[in-house]
Amino acid sequence: MPQDAFWTPRLFFVATLLGVLLVGGGCEHRTRSGDQDASTSEEGPIPKHVSWDARFAMSEGGRSRAVLEAYRMEQYRVADSTYSIWRSMADTSRVRVYLFDERGDSSATVTADSLVFQDQKGVLDAYGNVFVVTEDSKRLESEHLTWEQADRTIRTRRFVRIQTPTEVVQGDGLVADEDLETYQIGRFAAEVEVDEEK
After folding, report:
1. What is the pLDDT of residues 154-171, one digit of tens each?
2. What does the alpha-carbon distance between residue 97 and residue 100 come to, in Å, rounded to a whole number?
């Protein structure tokens, strides 16, 4: 058998095998049915950053605006925004927000079980056993409260109770200044202390 006749079938076989592997095999990408986006799990989004004993200070025009403090802070990034969740992890530790007025003086302290802070919008939502105490001893209680940095207001659609040195007002729904100087309550009841000597 001539040497060329020996190599021809082998070359043909090798060429055919390579052709089948290259053309027939192709390129394919499959995701397993259990694969998910790396930023989420079955329980929900996964935090991009976690801090313990967290503290975040905000300022406006060089003056203090607010200080957030919590035992744990989780930062999340979704689509086109970021937000953080501030949590208390024990019964004795509460999440705190210290608010300051236009002059940089302390105006109120907010305590809650947890907070969701949307820093780009300047909006903070407080959840669970929410209390606001002002410098002049006014006290607000609710289960949910939204604070908006831009207009210095607090709002809720939930039941709210405000106690001042002279009255107790409660109802469903609230729009108020953050220092509780002025407020509007929907469907309310009030107890007013009257000085009978006057």
Report:
1. 999 999 999 988 889 999
2. 10
CB half-sphere exposure, 138, CA atoms < 13 A: 18
Predicted TM-score (pTM) of this structure: 0.70
Share of the chain above pLDDT 90, in %: 38
Write the pLDDT tens digit of every residue in 7-49: 454 444 444 433 433 333 333 332 333 334 445 556 667 888 8
Q: Distance of alpha carbon 106 from its chain centroid, rounded?
A: 24
DSSP H helical ranges for the chain: 3-19, 25
CATH of segment(s) 45-192: 2.60.450.10
The tokens for 54 are: 């967290």
For residue 133, which of 167, 162, 166, 92 has the smallest C-alpha distance? 162
**Residue boundaries of the structural domains of the chain:** 45-192
What token pair was written down for 113? 């079980």
| Three-state SS at 160 | strand
In angstroms, the CA 182 to CA 7 distance is 98
Give the contacts of 118 (CB within 8 A, at least 6 positions apart). Answer: 81, 82, 83, 124
